[in-house]
Amino acid sequence: MFMKINLVSVNRRGLSFLCNNLLVVLSCLVLLFASCKKESPGKEEVKAPKKSELLALSIYKPNEFGNMDYNDSTSTWSYKRSRQSTHFIVFWDKKYQHYDPGSQSIPAAYRVNIDDLLAKAESFYEHNVTELKFAEVGVAKSNLDKYKLMIFLYYQDQWLATGSGYDDVIGALWVSPNTCQPVGSTIGHEIGHSFQYQVFCDLKNGAGFRYGFGGNGGNGFWEQTAQWQSFQSYPKEAFTSYYFGEYVKNYHRHIIHELPRYANYFIHYYWTYKHGIDMIGKLWRGARQPEDPVQAYMRLNGITTEQFNDEIYDAATRLTTFDMDALRQNGKDYIGKHTYKMNQLADGSFQVAYDHCPGTTGYNVIPLNVPAGGTVISAAFTGLPNAAGYNQVDAARAGWRYGYVALLENGTRVYSNMSKGTAGTASFTVPANCSKLWFIVTGAPTIYSPHAWDDNESNDEQWPYKVKFNHTNLLGYINVDENAIPKDTSFIYDVSFPLDMTAYSGKSVSIDLTKLATAFALQPAKITQLMGSSIKFYAVESNGSLNATTTANGYGHWFNAQGNVINWGTDARLFSEYDASTFVFSIGQYPGHNAVGDKYTIRQALVYEYEAGKKVQATFTFNVKIE
Q1: Which of 90, 524, 534, 602 has the fewest beta carbons under 10 Å from its own?
Q2: Where would I find the DUF4859 domain in this sequence (predicted)?
C-alpha cells in the first residue's frame, strides 16, 4: 500500500493529502477549483516564454493530461501562463487569465513573484543535486537530463503544498499562493519531496523508499528528510520552527516514528556529520525494499546492530548540546530544552515515566545537579524490560546505552565513557568549570526491529529503566532527609553593581539551594509548591521584625537607606525580588537615588510552618555596595 506515501505531501498548517494516487487527488482539485466563486482578474498580457527557455530541457506531459496542448491558451496548463528557468517550469492557474501572478492588479492574497519562485527553486535544485546528491545528472542516469521539474500554481485560498511527481518520470509540486508569500522553506520542503520522488524515477529497483515500513504502508521518512532538505537553505529553522518544540517532546521515540515525523530531522544531521553531506542522498538512492532507513544505513555503512546502537548513543550525547558543526552555533540558545520525566521511588532512585520511556533508537536527556569540579559521581543503572505499566517487548533483546555529558563554562563539551547492558554503574569525574551536566540513556535492543506506522503507541517498543545517583541527583533534587526536623538557617551575600542614573539595574543572586533544602527538609520543588501557604515570604526590618507587605514586584520589597521596607518613591534606594521557581533574588537600584560608594544592608526571609505552631526561618542578608 502507498496510501500514506504515494502522494507525499506536507502542510505547514497541518494539512495532509494522503490519497492512494496522484491522479485521484489532482482530479479532485480540478473539480474544486472549477467551482471556485472568486472573481477572476481581468486581462493583462504576460510575457511569452523565451525560445531559449524551451530549448535545453523538455517539458514532460503527464499521462493524465491526455491531449492537452501546452501551446493552447485555453488549456488547463498552458505555455501562455508559464515561465521557465534552467531546471523548472511554473504553470499558473487559468483564473489568473492574462495577468502575471506578480502583477499589482492581482489581489494580494493570490499574488506570487514568479521570478523569485524560480530563483529560489534553482537554489534548492543546486542543494539537492550538487551537495546532497539526490540525483546524478550529466551522465545519462537521470530524467533531470531530459525534463524540467514542474511547479503548478493554483489560484485559491486553501493551503496547498504538495511535492511528488508524475508517472515515475519527473518530479513536480502543486502549491497555493500563500505558500509562496514569500518563497521559503515550505517550497524547499516540497522540492525536497520532488527529489525524493525522482530517486525512484531514475533508479527503480526499490530505491527511494516508495514503500511502508513494518508491513503497514506508512512512511514518515519522506517528511523527516524533506524538513532536513529545506533546512539546508534555512538552517536556523531547525530550531526556530514549530517542529523543534515537537522534537524535544518526542525524542524518546523511535527515530522513524510516525507521530513526530515532521520533527525527527536531527538524525539526518548526525548521519551527515559521520559520513558527509551526501549521506542522506546515498541512503535514498541505495535503499532496497523492504528495508527501513536504519536497515539501509547499517547495510550501506557495513555496521552491525551493536555498532549502530553505539552510534545512536553518540548521536544522543552530541544532540544534547547540538555539538556538530551544522548545529552548534544555531543551537546554542536551545541547550537544555529536551523534556524528561522521572518518577522518584522509595529507595531514592528514579524510574523513567511511561510517556518519556525511550523506544528503540530513542533517548533521554536527564539534567543533573552540578557538584564541585573533581567530584566523582555515579549512577547505578537497572534496565526494567516488561516492567508493569509499560509496553511489552521481547526481553531477550533488551539493551541500553548510558553515560554523561558535561558542558563547561567556555562551551567545551566533555563526554564520559559509554556504558552498556541491562545493569551496571557508570561513574564520571566532574570537570572543573562545569556549568551543565546530563545523564543520557538510549534504547538499544540487541536485535533491531523496524517501527511500523500504525498510529498505535501501545505496541511501540519501550525500554524502561531506573537509576540511582551518588554525589549528584536530578536537577532540582537534593539529597536530604525529608524525615528530619526542619531548622533555622541564614545566608549572607555580598553584592555590588555600578551606579545607574537612568535604569533599575542591579544583579541576580542564586541562593545555595542545597543548604535551604536541607534546613527545611524539603525538596526544592516542594518548597516552590508550598510558597504562599505553609511557606511565607517576608522582609526583615532593621530591628529584626518581619514585614509581610510586599512593595515591589511579586515576592519583593523596596528598601530605604536604613534597610527598612518602603514604597517606591523619593526615599527608596534598593529593591529585592525573589523568584520562587528559580530560587533567584534580583537586587537593583532606584536610578539616581544612590551615589558611588553607598553601602546598604537589606534582609528578607522565608518562614516555614512545618507543623501547627512550629516554624523555622531562612534569613537572606544582602550587603550591597554601589560602585
Answers
A1: 534
A2: 504-613
Where b means 16+ CB within 10 Å and e means fewer, 543-567 reads eeebeeebbbeebbbbbbeebbbbe
Domain residue ranges in the chain: 489-626
Mean pLDDT lowest among 20-24, 406-410, 429-433: 20-24
pLDDT single digits (tens) 321-370: 999 999 999 999 999 999 999 999 989 899 999 999 999 999 999 999 99
Task: Write out the three cell numbers for 454.
Answer: 500504525
Please give the grid coordinates belonging to residue 497: 553593581
410-459 pLDDT, tens digit each: 999 999 999 999 999 999 999 999 999 999 999 999 999 999 999 999 99
In this structure, which long-range contacts are made by residues 573-578, counting pairs with CB atoms below 8 Å and at least 24 apart in sequence? Answer: 573/598, 573/600, 574/506, 574/600, 574/602, 574/624, 575/504, 575/506, 576/552, 576/602, 576/604, 576/622, 577/552, 577/553, 578/537, 578/554, 578/604
What does CATH list as the number for 489-626? 2.60.40
- Grid cell listed for 28: 479532485
pLDDT digits (tens, 9 = 90+) for 80-115: 999 999 999 999 999 999 999 999 999 999 999 999
DSSP 285-339: HH--TT--HHHHHHHHHT--HHHHHHHHHHHHHHHHHT-STTTHHHHGGGTT---
For 243, residues 6+ apart whose C-beta sits below 8 A from its C-beta are 227, 260, 262, 263, 265
Q: Answer yes or no: are the C-beta atoms of 411 and 344 closer than 8 Å.
A: no
